[in-house]
Amino acid sequence: MDAELDTVVTFLTKFLHSKFPSSEVSAFRTQLSAALYQRYAGHWFPADPTHGCAYRALHSVEGRLDPLLKEVSKAVGLPIEAVLPRHLTVWCDPGEVSVRIGVQGSIWPLEMTAPA
Asked: How far is CA 59 from CA 38, 48, 72, 115, in A?
């Protein structure tokens, strides 16, 4: 789960680097990692990766953030909804992280990163 979570966090923080101070991005990264780990604990099934995939998805629709992203954003004081795509979905499944930008955009897998 560590590689998948790091991949999600790395992908999302790339949107923030050019708009916010690195110390704030670092705080967001740390809090998001912890929140995702807590959210996915008990909902991670390597033997059946699609089981629970909707629960592990993160969404930004019409600029409205997923509650977890909104909570972390508020906790660190970063208005990330201003820099994320208006329509974004990130699926975090055992062995794969996939993304869709746009309402009917293509879905593509992200290259997995090693945990920081």
From this structure: 18, 22, 14, 23
Which DSSP symbol is given to 15?
Answer: T
Coil, strand or helix at 57: coil
Tell me the one-letter amino acid at 2: D
H or E element in which residue 98 lies:
strand 96-101
Number of structural domains in the chain: 1
CATH at 81: 3.90.640.90
Three-state DSSP state, 22? helix
- Each residue's pLDDT tens digit, 90-112: 999 999 999 999 988 899 999 98
Cβ atoms of residues 1 and 93 within 8 Å = no
Does 114 fall in a domain? no
Q: Which H helix or E strand runs over 59?
A: strand 58-61
- Diameter over CA atoms, the chain: 40
Q: Is-above-0.85 flag for pTM?
A: yes
